[in-house]
Amino acid sequence: MKRIASQLTFCSPLEILCRTVVEQDEYKVVTRLFSLDENNVESSQTLFFDGIISAEIISVKENMILSEKIISDYKYIDVSGELPTVIIPSEKSLLLDFGTNSVEKINYKFKSLAPALTSFSAFDIIAACTYFPALVVGKTASLSRNRNTRLLLWEGLDLVNKRITDYIRIREID
């Protein structure tokens, strides 16, 4: 069993938890989510991180054949090749597809991609990489109990303004 906590935990676009512990078993299944504020004492053996915890990044291209429905339902941006210089918000939910779930490759891409995403909140970007791709490929989208997922830590964010910075870094929490 491992327990991790940070300032924010992204469960879904409508559920962002503050000061929450995510407990996960050895099979990467989330067994419990609980607030640090509800406990009288600090949870033992909890690792505390600076950033936002989320579920894993999912590539739609890696998991299914793209369809017109996906492209019409979302503002789908393929960032596996040449990167856009600006991405303009729309009524559709943003879906970023890196063509991989390799954190190292995604971090490399984010260095160049960050300036194109300045009009989006950090939560919009996390949802675009984790939540909406999971919905599209038919996986559990919310970070919740009984979900099997790799946990990620989004670091180098401006947590006050909820924006990404040029120093954004994602790492898998082992």
Describe the overall structure.
There is one protein chain. The chain has 174 residues and is of the alpha/beta class. The protein has two domains: 2-56 and 148-172, Urease, subunit C, domain 1 (Roll); 60-137, no CATH class. The protein contains four helices and eight strands. The protein has helices at 60-63, 68-73, 103-113, 122-137; strands at 2-12, 15-24, 30-35, 46-54, 74-78, 93-97, 152-158, 163-172. The strands form two sheets. The chain has a six-stranded mixed β-sheet with strand order 3-2-1-4-7-8. Strands 5-6 form a two-stranded parallel sheet. A hairpin with a 4-residue loop joins strand 7 and strand 8 (163-172). The longest helix has 16 residues, at 122-137. The mean pLDDT is 91.
Summarize this entry quickly.
With 174 residues, this protein is of the alpha/beta class. The chain has 4 helices and 8 strands.
Task: Describe the SSE topology.
Layout: E1 2-12, E2 15-24, E3 30-35, E4 46-54, H1 60-63, H2 68-73, E5 74-78, E6 93-97, H3 103-113, H4 122-137, E7 152-158, E8 163-172
Parallel strand pairs: 1-4, 5-6
Antiparallel strand pairs: 1-2, 2-3, 4-7, 7-8
